[in-house]
UniProtKB/TrEMBL annotation:
PANTHER family: HIGH-AFFINITY BRANCHED-CHAIN AMINO ACID TRANSPORT SYSTEM PERMEASE, HIGH-AFFINITY BRANCHED-CHAIN AMINO ACID TRANSPORT SYSTEM PERMEASE PROTEIN LIVM. It is a multi-pass membrane protein. Residues 343-366 have a biased composition (Low complexity). The chain crosses the membrane at residues 41-61, 68-86, 92-113, 120-138, 169-189, 220-241, 247-265, 295-316. Residues 329-375 are annotated as: Disordered. Keywords: Cell membrane, Membrane, Transmembrane, Transmembrane helix. The keyword Cell membrane applies. GO terms for molecular function: branched-chain amino acid transmembrane transporter activity. The lineage of its organism: Bacteria, Bacillati, Actinomycetota, Actinomycetes, Kitasatosporales. InterPro entries: ABC_transp_permease, LivM-like. It is found in: Cell membrane. GO terms for cellular component: plasma membrane. This is Branched-chain amino acid transport system permease protein. It comes from Streptomyces collinus.
Length: 375
């Protein structure tokens, strides 16, 4: 009964801590655009849209156990879908979001077919090839994509009733999309699909024996990952207002994968931390060295992975565990001081032994006949 009560108390404390953390994060997110300068608000907006792309990559790599170096291609597909719709067909911004999501989902579904027969480095090379040949293809399709010059579209328009600046309105729209995307990823991982992905990642043979269809869930992992990347690319077009093939080179795919690893694989908070790393660390590297910012960026990645091998999301858990261990050792009784024995304390003290040289009075030898009284 005591164990059950302790477990129940731990669960309640965990839920309370998660609720307080969520409320605190929501308060900070809602108040941030009123505190920071416009450029800093723009940077926060970019962190949010990159977090959506990393959440999709986390489904594939962190929870699905498959390696992808072509995530930037799905990002570009969503961005160009929104740009073409806004430029050629003059649709509304919100109308581009479901089209980009569904189109990238179908693209990922078709691209997930190689994942059925390839794994490891071979699958990584195939996805990298997809990211490499997409920018030249976009340049060839000049009547649709604008070629090397790209496409310039209108940004989000601020409604008059909001009373917000352009950067603040864009931030809140992207914040809403990011919140819905992260909630969808969380619910997806807690569903049957998420449990199947974890089973496939841990042991494919055991998962197949338990009835998990490997081909279906591997393909769905690519499809869901592409959907999140397409949504992120669509929002990118809203924020930037310009797309070009050179903005979506294979370096973007590698940067996104590095950001996910630094943020923390198979973690719900890892995409947010990785997105912040992708957004801010290159700027810091540029400030440190104008001549070789890439070298500084690589050294910073090595330093972070040396300090936090499981990512920034795992570093917080490790620090919390170390603090809890030290607190437990401080409050626990010392091992060198055993508790007193109650039986030993209750027993009477032994009598003092007789002196060695003292002779007993009227002592008789052992086995002797008893003496008779004299009359």
């Amino acid at each position: 009964m005591s164990t059950f009560t302790a477990t129940l108390g731990t669960d309640r404390a965990r839920r309370l801590r998660a609720t307080l953390t969520t409320l605190l994060a929501a308060g900070v997110a809602l108040g941030a655009p009123f505190y920071f300068a416009p450029f800093q608000v723009f940077q926060l907006t970019m962190v949010l849209l990159y977090a959506v792309a990393l959440a999709g990559l986390n489904l594939l790599v962190g929870f699905g156990g498959q390696i992808s170096l072509g995530h930037g291609a799905f990002f570009a597909a969503g961005a160009y879908t929104a740009a073409v719709m806004l430029d050629r067909y003059e649709t509304g911004h919100l109308a581009t979001l479901p089209v980009a999501a569904v189109g990238c989902f179908l693209l990922g579904l078709g691209f997930g077919v190689p994942a059925l027969r390839l794994r490891g480095l071979y699958l990584a090379l195939v996805t990298l090839a997809f990211a490499v040949f997409l920018p030249p293809l976009l340049k060839r399709l000049e009547p649709v994509t604008g070629g090397s010059m790209g496409l310039t579209v209108d940004k989000l328009q601020v409604p008059a009733w909001s009373g917000l600046a352009e950067d603040q309105w864009t931030y809140f729209v992207v914040l809403a999309v990011t919140a819905v995307a992260l909630l969808l990823a969380r619910n997806l991982l807690r569903s049957r699909v998420g449990r199947a992905l974890l089973a496939v990642r841990d042991n494919e043979s055991a998962a197949e024996v338990m009835g998990v269809r490997l081909s279906l869930h591997k393909t769905l992992a690519f499809a869901w990952s592409a959907l999140f990347a397409g949504v992120s690319g669509c929002v990118y077009t809203w924020v930037i207002g310009f797309v070009s093939p050179d903005s979506f080179s294979f370096v973007l795919s590698i940067t996104l994968l590095a950001g996910l690893v630094v943020g923390g694989l198979a973690s719900l908070y890892g995409p947010l931390l990785g997105a912040a790393f992708v957004m801010y660390v290159p700027s810091v590297a540029q400030d440190i060295s104008d001549a070789a910012p890439g070298v500084v960026f690589g050294l910073l990645i090595i330093a972070v992975m040396f300090v936090a091998p499981t990512g920034l999301a795992g570093l917080a858990g490790r620090l919390r565990g170390v603090a809890a261990g030290r607190l437990t050792r401080t409050t626990a009784p010392a091992a060198d001081d055993p508790p007193p024995d109650p039986e030993a304390s209750a027993s009477p003290a032994p009598a003092d032994p007789a002196p060695v040289d003292a002779e007993p009075v009227d002592a008789e030898p052992v086995g002797a006949q008893p003496r008779k009284e004299e009359e």
